[in-house]
Each structure stands twice: as structure tokens, then as C-alpha cells.
Amino acid sequence: MNRSPCRLSLDSAALVHNWRLLASMSGAAACGAAVKADGYGLGAREVVRRLADAGCRDFFVATWAEARALVDTGVSVSVLHGVRADDMALARLRNSRPVLNTPVQVQRWKDAGGGLCDVMVDTGMNRLGVSPTDIADGLLEGLRIDTLMSHLASADEDAAMNEAQRARFAALAEATGAQRMSLANSAGVALGADYHFDLVRPGVALYGGVPRAELAGVRQVATPEAQVLQRRRVRAGEAVGYNATWVAPADTEVAILNLGYADGYWCGFSGKGQARAGTTRLPVLGRVSMDLIAVDCSAAEVAEGDWLALDYALPEAAAISGMSQYELLTGLGSRFDRIWR
Ligand SMILES: *Cc1c(COP(=O)(O)O)cnc(C)c1O
Hints:
By secondary structure, the protein is α/β, with parallel strands linked by helices. The chain has helices spanning 12-25, 36-40, 44-54, 64-68, 103-111, 132-136, 160-170, 186-189, 314-321, 325-330, and strands spanning 6-10, 30-31, 33-34, 58-61, 76-79, 96-100, 116-120, 144-149, 180-182, 199-200, 222-234, 239-240, 246-247, 252-257, 274-277, 280-285, 293-296, 307-310, 337-340.
């Protein structure tokens, strides 16, 4: 087998730890998992298998293609984007149900014979969802609703909007006949018991994201690693990389790694990121290329063919790169071998 020269080292124990942490913070509420966008770039099937083994029973994807890719895992999947006309052929997928978002989707689902569904209500984000007024006017009558959900716009901040959304959502408790209510994403879990209702839907924190300080116990899951393709000595005064933005102040040992912005190692890491050889830090020199970066390896024994890990703790990596923790996960490209340990 031809192994890729870059790989994601994925920590199964950290993933499960993060889910258990969120589950325990959520008290009596069930803890699900958002696995859309291929498990935030890590691999939805592998994530689902590990979290289902740990006891997770509710999974969330965006589209029916994502649900179909999970059907043989046997887990319950809610499809957040609901049912477009084009989706109706797939929408009877075993163990899957739509999250209905609009009056058109509600009617489409009723016309197709109904069946168990979820419903999204908009409580102020003005993204997806039916309105509380639609509900008061009887839009949902006749539906068999598993979970009524809404989504917080600003759970990662201490914004007044959080309480306003929570109150609007809580007021719908008796209005729909839904078996369960669900409001909180990862950051929402940290807002406290009033936000947990019956089911929480964390995503980013499962994968090592820390959207609020209360979630500091979340552990890093994904670490990019890249192979050294070349090692060279750069003489004092010579430059490295596109546009010669880094000029060697002294003779420097440089390793060229098989990793670049096409893999999701974004240009924001230029001159700021770092690799590690053991505990020795190897700073990124100059610009990140599409498929390559250069690091200063003067302080370590590094040879062609060696593997080096990149620093990728999400809060810190987001701060230095200017990308969000979410983008740092979902941008991780298809050229990585994804290796679960
Ligand atoms: C993505 C998503 C989540 C998970 O959000 P995180 O911020 O990643 O925890 C939960 N609910 C809905 C509706 C989503 O779209």
C-alpha cells in the first residue's frame, strides 16, 4: 500500500473523553454528536463507531448523502437540512429522519405520508427553521415529532441573545407534542442546565475545539503529521520560500515537509506555525506553499523521511493562523491518511 506523505494522527481516547465530558456537563440530558462535514473533517464513520460504542445514540448530519454514508453503522441520524424535493427518494433511509425547517418541507413530509421527524424552530438566528408563529398557527399539527430543536447564534459569547433564544424555545415546550427538546451545541452545553433540555448536540468540542473557557477540559483529537522530503542548509543571507519572506540571519538547517494549504495547513501559519521533534520546537519559515512548508530544524536531529508533528491545539492554532477552530478541522484535506490510535 502506498502511504501518503502526510497523515492525521487521531486520538480515539481523546474523542471519547470529550464526549463523556460533554455528557457529564449535560446532566440528565442525552448527549448526541454532530458529525456533519465528514465528522468535521476527521471521518464521520470512524467517529460514529467510537461514540456509539461509548453510548452516544443521536447523530446529526447536514445532508442525505451524509446520512446514506452512515446507514450501515445502524445509528440514528437526523438530517439537519431537511427534505428538498430532490431528497424524497433518500428520505426513507433506515434509521434516518429529516429535521424539517420550512412550511414547504413540512407539507412535503406530510404529503409523503409523514413518519417520525424532527423540527427546527428559529428563535432568533434567522438561519434555518420554522417560526414560533407558524407553530402557533398549527403548522405542525399531524406530525410525529421526535425532537423539536433550535440553534443558538452566540453561545460562544456571554450575549443577551442566549437567554432570549432560550426563553423563546422554552415557551414552545407544550406546543408541538415533540417527544424531546434540544437547543445546545458545544458552547451551549457550557451555558448551564437551563440550556440542556432533553438532548444536546455538540460538534466542535468533540473534536478538540474549545469554544468557551468552561470547556477547557476538552482534549486535542487531531494532529497533522508530515514527512520530511528534503533537508538542506540555508546559508546566512539566503531566503526560503515564495517571495523570499524569510531570510536566514545565520546558517540554518531547514527541513521541507509534505504539507501545505491544499491540506488545510493555511497560509496564516506562514512564519508562525511550528512542528515538533519530540519536545523541540521547529518554527515554520516563510510562506506556506500549496503542498509544502519549511521548518527550522537546527535544534533537532531530523533526516529525510522522518515524520514531524505540527502544533495543532485548536485554540492556539486558531489564534496564530486567524482561522476559526471549525475551519481548522473542516479544512483538513483528502490527502491525509487518517490514522486512529
Ligand atoms: C453544527 C451544528 C451543531 C454543532 O455545533 P458546534 O458548535 O460544532 O458544537 C449543532 N446543531 C446544529 C443545528 C448545527 O448546525
